[in-house]
Every structure is written in C-alpha cells, then in structure tokens.
Design goal:
heterotrimer, A mainly alpha, B alpha/beta, C mainly alpha, A: mainly alpha, 14 helices, 74% helix, C: ABC transporter involved in vitamin B12 uptake, BtuC, two-stranded antiparallel sheet, 15 helices, disordered N terminus
C-alpha cells in the first residue's frame, strides 16, 4: 500500500507524461471517424515511434544536465548510411544493421568526448557536430535514394499477429535492452547523480565523467536506431536538413512533456516516449478537428512554448533571489 | 577507568606533524591527534582553528603537505574519501553530500552498491539501507523516499546512515548535529553510545558545548592550526575551555573608539525582521557613526540578515525603516539608490563581489555606473577621477588598472570590492566577513577605514567570524544564535570571552541549569 | 606552434599601444582572413581585386548585422536560436506592409524590425523573468514564428516583392562603388562599439556575462538588461532579414536557415566566449568576414554543400578547443 505511494512519487514525471498522452490520444480516438481500429493505432504508432527513439536519446543526455542538439542530424545521417548498407542477404543485412548502430553510437561518443574531455559547452559542440553529421549525410546522399532490405523493413513496420504494430514491439525491446539496464546500472545511477547535484556526486565518489560519456554514446545509439527505422518506413535515404532540425527540436519538447527536468536528475526515457507520442498526437488532433493544416505549425509552436514554460512555476517557490543565478 | 584504558591501549589511529597550507595561509601547523577505539573524542576550536582541515585530511578529501598518519601502527595515505572509507574511516560532512533526486537507499550505497548480474541489486540495496538506517536510529525513514522530499534534519540522519553503511571503525561527525532538533540529537547520542560500546572510535566536532560535555570522553582543543591541549572530558570548566580556545594575544592594531556617541536617530532600524526558518524576530537599530558587529558562530543567520536587509530575500517579515520611515527594499538596485544609500560587501568576493576576468578599472566603477553616466553614456573623465581617488584612498596596489581584477592579491581584491561601493558614498554599509582570508596588514588598513567611514557618519553593520575583530572595531555587538539575537554587548562589555560564551550559548545553558 | 606564439607575442609587443590590448583571438581571426585571401589569390588573382573584396563585404554585411545581435546575447552567456524564422518574419512582414500604399512603403522597414523586436522581447522575458534556459525558449519561439509565417504565406513564398527602399538599402549606392549594405553594417558596427564600450548598458552586459550574481548584488537590474539584449538581437535579426530580402528582391521561406550556425560561428571565431563576459566587437567583425570568405572560397572551389557543412563544424570545434574551454571539472 505505502510501497505503491513511493513508486508513484518516483515515477511522477513519467506518469504525468503518460496521462498527457492518454488524454490526448483518447480525445483523438473519440473524434476520429474510424474510431479505435488496428489501422488507426498502427498509423499512430508508426508516426510516433521515430520521435520516441529520438526523445529517448535526448532524455539520456538531459538527465545528466546536458543537451544534444545533434540527435536529429545523427538520425538523418544513420538514415543515409542505412540506405546504403542495410541490403542484400540476411547476413549482409545484419552486418549493415550493426554498422548503422555503431555509426550512431560513434557520433554520440564524439559528442561525449568533446563535451566531457574537451570541456566544451554541449550546446555549441552539438550544433557544430550536428553540422558535420549533416554534411556527411549529404555526402552519402546528395539526392534522396538508395534502398533497404524490404523483407526486414516490412517485417518491422507491419503487425505482429495481425493486431500489434511491430514498431511498438521494437520500441519495447529497445526499452528492455537499452534503457532498463542503463537505469539499473551503477553508471546509470551516476548519470542521475551527476545531473542532480554535481558537487554531491563528486563528494560521494560517483564516476561522473564515465556516466556522462555513456549517456552521450547511448543517445547516439538510440538516434541511430531511429534512423534505421526511418529507413524501414521510407525505403530510402535522404539528407533532409529540415527533418533533422525538426526532430532535434521536437525531441526537446517531448522530453519536457514527458516529465524530464531540463536541469537534470529527474525523469526517465520512458516518460520521454510518452512525451513523444503526446507531441505527435497534437499534430493528429488538429487533423481530426479539421483544423486547417496551415495552422498546425503555429499551434504546435504554442504547445511547445507552454510546455517549456511549465518549468518556470518552480520559480515562485524561490525564497532567495540569489537562487535565480545558479 | 578511562585513564588506565588510555594508558594501556594503543591508539587505533594517529596523526603526527601534520602541516597544510593554502597559498600563504597556514591551516595546520605540526598538528597531531590520537584516537582510540571505544571512545568519543571531541575536537574544539574557534572558526578557522584548523578543525575542518584536520578532518578532511583524515577522511581523504585533502592531502596534507607534511606529516604522517598511522592506522593501527601502519602508515596510511588517502587520495580520496572512498579510499579512506574502505580503510575504515567514514565521515559525516558538514556540507551535505546527498543527491536530492535519488532515493535514500540509492544514496546510502551510492559508491558501493550491491550488484547482481552487473546491475544494482535493489533488494539487497534496500536491505542494506534498512540496516544502516536502523543503526543510525532512523528506522522511520523509508528507504524509497527521495532525499529532496526529506526535511533537513532527516537528511542529516541519512548522512549518518550513509557513513555507517561503510561499517567504519572510525566515524567522524563534523557539526553533524547542527541541523538537528533536540529530539534527534538525543537519538543520535543514543546511537553514538551504542557505537562506542561496539568499539568504534568516534570523532565529534561541534560548537555546542553542552553536547560535548554530555557525550565526549576526551577533548582536544585546536588553536591557530595546532592542537594546544587535550584533557579528559569534565575536567575543565566552561570558562577554562573558552580561555584555551582564545588563548592568543590580541594581534591587530585597532583604531581608538570614540568615547561617547551622539544620540542621533537611527538611520537603519528593523523590527521583528524574519525570513523563512532562518531568521526570527530580529530587532536592531544602527545610528550614523556607529559600527555594530554581528557575532555568533558561522551560519546562525548573519549572512541571511545582511542579504535580507539588502533586498535579496523574498518573503521577509517584519519592518525595515530608513531614517525612521518604513521602507520596503525589494532589490539591491533599490537598496543602493538615493534615499537609502545602502552598500553590501558580500561574503564571497570571487563570485559575488567581483567579476574576476574584468579589469580593475571596470570593477571599481561597476556599482556606481549610474552616477558616473548621463543618459546611459559613461562620462569617462568623471569615471577616471572617481577611480583615481579611490585607488589612492584605499592604497590599492595593482601593476595596472587594466589587468583582470582576478590577478590581484586577496587583500587588494577585497579593497576593490569595498572601493566599488565607497564610490557611491553609501550611508549604510553592510559587511559580510570582509577580512576572511586576507593578510594582517590589509586587515589593519580596513579597521582604520571602517572607523574613518563611521566618523564620517556612515552607519555600519559588520559581520565577522573573527571575535578579535568584533572586540577591536565595534561599538556594539549583536550575537546571533539559530536566527535570533541572543545577546547584545556594548562598550567595555564586548570581550572575546563574552563573545565566545554567548556564541556557544553557554550562558543560557548555565542559566537553564541553575 | 610555440615558435609561432612567441613570434606573435613579440609582434604584439612591438605594436603601438592601442593594438597591444587587442585580444589574440581577434588577431588570429584577422590573420586567418589574410591567409584565406592569400590562398585565394594563388587560385585566382581576382581574389585581391577591389571589386571582389567589396562584393564580399556586401555579402558579409547581412551576416554582420545578425551576428551583432547574436554577440550581445552570447556576451550574456546565453544564445538565440530563433534567428532563422525571426529573420524570415522580419523580411516577410516588411514586404507585406509595403503593399499598403505610400504609408506602407514608409513603415515597411520599421515594421519588419519591430516584429523582430517583439519576438526578442518574448525571448528575453522567458530567459530573464521565467529563467527558462535561453536555448529552449528561443527554439520554441522560432517554431512559433515559423508557424505564423506558414499561416501568413500559406506555405509558399510570398508574392510581395521587396519595396524600392529595401532594395536601395541593400544594393544601392550613396558612395559610388560602395554598396549601401556595407554602410548599414558599418553604422550598426559603430553603434555596437559605442554601446559595448561607452555605455552603462554595455558594461552591464559584460558584467552579467561574467557573473550575474555579482552584477545583481552590485545593484544592476540584470533581468531588464537581459531582456533588452534579446530584444536588440531580435530586432537585428529581423533587420538582417529585411536587408537580405532587399538584396534578393523578395522574401522567401526558410531564407534564414543558413544564417543561424554562421552567426554563432562568427561570434565564437571572433574570440567571444560562449560562456559569456568576454569578447570584443572587432572580433565579431573579423569572424563575419572570415566566415564569408570561407564560404566564398569553398563555393569558388565548387565545394558542395556537404563539404561546407563539414568544414564549418570542424572549424568551430577547433576554434572552441583553442579558446572556449571551460574550467577543469572534477
């Protein structure tokens, strides 16, 4: 009974993200002409799953009180890589998938190295590495094109047992294989500690640097998984600048909606997933309410602005004005 | 019984000839200490006597310059707190080392969690936490509570549990009871007695005399970085202990105080001023020409009082009046302006007083820019003249005024902080421990300056952690304890002895006993 | 490497006094400009012609105007990521208002700038009063500005063409041979130098960038200063957009996308610390010219877009590693 309460308190941010998503999704379904059908869910899942991967990536870094503005570009770059190498026999395809994931992780590791060991500000570093990653993507795919192993792509974007969208299952598998082990490990806890209070973490002998590095690297890996799935959905690779910067932006929005604190230390990647689906649903809601598509960017922008302003409520509790400047 | 034991048993841990310097300042000089198992050893000393440095060295947070440490006659050296903890020395630090967003259980085994399949074993971790909390007498804290949801006193109990989770043989408690309520202190004492019975060596640092009398077996007094006396607890009277802590000759040369004060109305007065749970019912008056000291132990609300008067704190209660007129001060900008004319020399000159990378010149004129400019454009000639005047007045020594202020010596940096405020010719000057970490020569210059400013009718409120200074400089001293003014000393009544006694709240204790 | 630094110091020692105080980063940036020109001249003698140089300065002036605002914000230790769409909005709104007869013609440029200022104020309010990280606020306002412009244009490039005044400002000549855009940039630069070195506002900006705590405790209304700085940045972004639209004869969707990264890069390459508090405006000018020349040379050498992005990113990181490092952390 009381155990339940502690769990609730620990997961508050995540549950808030879930609540926002459920609310939006039920409003969406209620107003959808077709209602809750397998098709509707599959479309929603496939739309949301890409942002969910990127938001998870962003959440990992934000938990350490950092930020990665290159996630969207890693996503685009891995998409372009995948459109070259995830082809051929099952063996070749498997190697290709491994290569794509490795490339994503390497991009994240470069960010981590520059931020932690180069002692540079994450904002500027990741803007700059983002440009590099995009440049490489453009080198690989000056024009949209390429292909992907279609059997694999169809298998991973269709349905399992005719009802469950496979992409959701894939997302679940990633949560189980990447997020939960990270969360449960000493390094993962150190990442939270570093984001929550760097001085206390240092005094307690927590491996701050290793934790931060791991967070950036895993973020790259998750963005790479996102890029892979993008390729499965589109069957091509495209170095689209707008897509990359859009995903970066919405990953931050998703993280905030999912209850992850931008000051670090609080929230979870699972919350970020709910945040991502909630963010995607805003777009769909406008569709079912028959809002002129031209209004969509503006309304989404307003939602984003409101979401980031929520954090300012805590300011009212500040008793010493000097705390503004920390 | 204790005497025979201390002669017979070899000490569990010894430190000999320990020296530590920070820049030019000596924190410890040939200090030594021996602790035995099954005893509670109290360390006493004034602020800055070297206690904290000593503990940090023992706990591996600071590496000594000279000297050796022996654990059961084997020489040891610690490079990190974790190393010391593994050797069996755990420390409950004064500054909290808990991570607010993690649970109590996570915090207790933060650097050494039980593992299973490479991951943290939550079940085992929880069991460890429950054990440790029970040993610390805090069974009521649920291991899954997030630290940020706990009140300060409970967090302190978690700190103690965290130290106990290392299963140490020596436990250091540095001001570990300072945030605790009386009930919690009693619990902690029960725990400490049990640990003593289990054979642990306990090192207990506190400013609360009655606590030491109650719990310690043995006391060592530190002064100026040396251990000056050790005695069995209960063999010295309170006043004798205070004498040992002060012990030194008055070294600063202070300007003479004026004999009698004009009975002018107070320029600054506050009535039942309070803030949060840190300040209660502060009522004080400062007249022009008067230097009023704020005494007491570190962290009894002096800093908050000065910040509160300067308009930094939100939600203060009570009244502040300037020249008898009730005034609300909501920001330093208001505080410094026209009618009020207040200045605050902040505690930390590195982050609060100066912009280190900016030049001496830019720092000097920064607080007075509004007075040196017309319509937002700086009058360079006026600025130049004002800067020159103050550099001369305060004898600021700098190779050039165009070098970063951070490259000056500590004393000269402090002079720049004061000069930047004097440029505004303030009527009320608040000083937050302005002589900390600066050389004796500059200190003396500062005392002279304070008196000159007072003679020119400034009202000065002066917090210092150095009792000597309060005795030498102040016309009156208000002693704070736990956010309240507990004593007001005046004229010849301001003695170091009276200051230390009232800061430790010994009088009240004696009164209560009587 | 060490020899080079030694040479530089001895060179600096021999310089007349006013030059000796210049930040080495500024000298390096100007050195790089000369190096680029030299390399370019090996490729084609055109690179040293007056015509080419003026042309480059004209192109640089758009970036220069935007970078001036960006510098102000970076000096505070903040960042303004709303540049792309605030810029586009300034251009579109100016062109739109110009459609309303003579009154519109007169108000076109001020109105465009005004729109940018409003967004800057919004950014500043979020950063200074709501204490939201500047990066997040400005990302969000960028989307809002984009949303407004999509709504206004219907997603296509607007048909309004830039009014005569805007074209004249960007491409006309008051002084024969020197495009007006350069004069505009020079005027804004002069104003920036004055603002940063001679006014209480400028001093406060540096003070806040070094330690907002210390500035606040010195009695400065730091929140107001931060908000004004963001407003100026927004206004200058929009003005940059107005100039660019005048140059291209009309506003276009996403015309600002190519200016965000270069404006940050120009400020940082000019020796301004990304953590705030340090940097001289001269450095930003050098950074702007450096970036513009780099772009020009890469395009003359027919370097594809991909290569340009990579070169940018690498140049920024290398320069950051040279100057922009934070203190050693535990």
């Amino acid at each position: 009974m009381s155990e339940w309460r502690y769990w609730l308190n620990e997961q508050r941010g995540t549950l808030m993200g879930l609540a926002i998503f459920l609310l939006m999704f039920s409003v969406y379904i209620a107003n959808h002409p077709a209602g809750l059908t397998v098709n509707v869910v599959e479309t929603a899942a496939n739309k949301g799953v890409l942002l969910a991967f990127i938001a998870m990536a962003q959440a990992l870094v934000v938990i350490t009180a950092g930020i990665d503005l290159s996630v969207g570009m890693i996503f685009v770059l891995t998409n372009c890589i995948a459109s070259w190498i995830v082809v051929g026999t099952p063996m070749q395809t498997a190697l290709g998938v491994a290569g794509v994931l490795l490339a994503g992780a390497a991009c994240g590791a470069i960010n981590g190295l520059l931020v932690i060991y180069g002692r540079l500000q994450p904002i500027v570093v990741t803007i700059a590495t983002g440009a590099i990653y995009f440049g490489v993507a453009l080198l690989l795919r000056p024009f949209p094109g390429g292909s992907v192993n279609e059997d694999l792509a169809d298998a991973l974007t269709g349905r399992l047992f005719g009802t469950i969208p496979t992409s959701l299952v894939a997302l679940l598998v990633v949560v189980l294989l990447v997020w939960l082990p990270f969360r449960g490990s000493e390094i993962g806890r150190a990442a939270y500690a570093a984001g929550s209070s760097e001085t206390a973490a240092f005094m307690s002998g927590v491996p701050i640097r290793r934790a931060r590095f791991a967070a950036y690297t895993l973020a790259g890996l998750l963005a790479g998984i996102g890029g892979l799935f993008l390729t499965f959905f589109t069957y091509t690779g495209e170095a689209a600048f707008a897509s990359g910067s859009g995903y970066t932006l919405w990953s931050i929005a998703a993280v905030v909606l999912g209850g992850v604190s931008l000051y670090g230390g609080r929230g979870s990647a699972v919350g970020a997933i709910f945040g991502a689906f909630a963010a995607r649903t805003t777009g769909d809601m406008l569709f079912v309410f028959d809002v002129d598509p031209l209004w969509q960017p503006l309304l989404q922008g307003m939602v984003l602005l409101v979401a980031v302003s929520i954090g300012a409520i805590g300011l009212l509790r500040v008793r010493s004005r000097l705390d503004w400047f920390q | 019984m204790t005497a025979t034991q201390s002669q017979g048993g070899t000490p569990l841990f010894r430190m000999e000839g320990i020296c530590k310097r920070y820049g030019g300042v000596r924190a410890l000089e040939d200090a030594s200490l021996a602790v035995e198992g099954g005893r509670i050893h109290a360390i006493l000393g004034e602020n800055g006597a070297g206690k904290s440095t000593l503990i940090k060295i023992m706990a591996g947070a600071v590496v000594p310059d000279e000297g050796r440490m022996l654990l059961e006659d084997r020489q040891v050296a610690f490079r990190s707190p974790a190393q010391a903890a593994r050797a069996g020395i755990a420390c409950v630090f004064q500054e909290l080392s808990l991570i607010p967003d993690l649970s109590v259980a996570d915090n207790i085994s933060i650097s050494n969690p039980p593992r299973r399949f490479g991951l943290i074993d939550r079940t085992a971790q929880r069991r460890l936490a429950e054990e440790a909390l029970a040993r610390a007498g805090a069974e009521d804290i649920h291991p899954r509570t997030l630290v940020r949801d706990l009140p300060l006193s409970r967090r302190q109990m978690v700190e103690i549990a965290k130290a106990l989770a290392w299963k140490p043989r020596i436990l250091i408690l540095d001001e570990a009871t300072s945030a605790l309520t009386a009930g919690d202190v009693a619990k902690v004492f029960a725990v400490l007695r049990r640990l003593r019975a289990e054979g642990l060596a306990l090192l207990y640092i506190s400013h609360r005399m009655h606590e030491i009398t109650e719990i310690a077996d043995e006391c060592t007094v530190f002064r100026n970085g040396r251990n000056v006396a050790s005695y069995a607890a209960g063999t010295r009277s309170g006043s004798e202990v205070v004498e040992m802590m002060i012990g030194r000759e008055v070294s600063g040369v202070f300007p003479p105080k004026p004999q009698r004060h004009r009975e002018s109305p107070p320029v600054l007065a506050c009535d039942r001023f309070g803030w949060s749970d840190r300040l209660h019912d502060i009522t004080l008056k400062v007249r022009p020409g008067e230097i009023v000291g704020l005494g007491g132990l570190d962290g009894q609300g002096q800093r908050e009082l000065l910040l509160g008067l300067f308009g930094v704190l939100r939600g203060t209660t009570g009244n502040v009046s300037i020249d008898g007129v009730a005034t609300s001060i909501a920001s330093p900008g208001t505080a410094r302006a026209g009618r009020i004319g207040m200045a605050l020399i902040p505690e930390d000159r590195k982050t609060e007083g100066l912009m280190q990378p900016m030049t001496v010149r830019e720092n000097l004129s920064f607080a007075a820019l509004d007075q040196l400019s017309a319509r937002g454009v700086i009058d360079r000639d006026k600025e130049e003249r004002a800067i020159d005047e103050l550099v001369r007045l305060l004898a600021i020594k700098a190779a050039s005024l165009d070098i970063p202020v951070g490259s000056l010596s500590g004393g000269n940096q402090q002079k720049v902080v004061i000069a930047k405020w004097l440029m505004r010719r303030p009527r009320i000057i608040l000083l937050n421990d302005p002589t900390r970490g600066i050389d004796v020569g500059t200190k003396q210059e500062m005392y002279q300056l304070l008196r000159r400013l007072a003679d020119a009718d400034a009202a000065i409120l002066f917090y210092s952690t150095d009792y000597d200074e309060l005795v030498g400089c102040c016309d009156r001293v208000l002693v704070l304890y736990d956010g309240r003014i507990v004593r007001e000393l005046e004229g010849a009544g301001i003695t170091e002895r009276a200051l230390v006694a009232s800061a430790l709240h010994v009088d009240a204790q004696a009164e209560a006993a009587a | 490497m060490t020899e080079a630094t030694e040479n530089k110091t001895s060179l600096r020692a021999r310089l007349p006094a006013p030059f000796r105080r210049i930040d080495p980063a500024v000298l390096i940036a100007f050195g790089c400009i000369l190096l680029l020109l030299f390399l370019g001249s090996l490729y084609s003698s055109n690179f040293l012609s007056l015509e080419y140089l003026l042309q480059q300065l004209k192109v640089a002036s758009f970036l220069g105007v935007i970078a001036a605002g960006m510098m102000l914000v970076i000096l505070l230790g903040q960042i303004d990521l709303s540049v792309p769409w605030v810029m586009t909005m300034g251009a579109m709104m100016a062109c739109a208002v110009a459609g309303f007869g003579t009154g519109g013609m007169i108000l076109a440029i001020p109105f465009g700038i005004f729109c940018g200022m409003v967004f800057g104020l919004l950014n500043g309010f979020g950063v200074a009063y709501m204490r939201i990280p500047s990066m997040i606020v400005t990302l969000a306002t960028n989307v809002v500005a984009q949303g407004l412009m999509v709504l206004y244009t219907g997603g296509f490039s607007p048909q309004d063409s830039a009014p005569e005044a805007m074209r004249w400002l960007a491409t006309g000549f008051i002084i024969p041979g020197v495009p007006n855009a350069i004069l505009v940039w020079a005027a804004i630069s002069a104003a920036m130098v004055f603002l940063l070195t001679r006014t209480t506002f400028g001093r406060s900006v540096y003070g806040i960038g070094n330690s907002e705590r210390a500035a606040y405790l010195s009695g400065i209304d730091t929140r107001r200063i931060v908000m004004i700085a963001f407003a100026v940045s927004g206004a200058l972004s929009a003005f940059g957009g107005v100039l660019l639209a005048g140059y291209a004869s009309k506003a276009a969707q996403a015309m600002g996308d190519a200016y965000l990264l270069p404006s940050i890069a120009a400020v940082v390459l000019g020796g301004t610390s990304i953590l705030g508090g340090r940097g001289s405006y001269l450095g930003t000018v050098a950074g702007v010219i450096l970036i513009t020349l780099l772009q020009s040379i890469l395009s003359v050498m027919q370097m594809p877009e991909a290569g340009r992005q990579i070169v940018y990113g690498i140049v920024i990181i290398v320069m950051l590693l040279l100057y922009g490092r934070g203190p050693a952390s535990p």
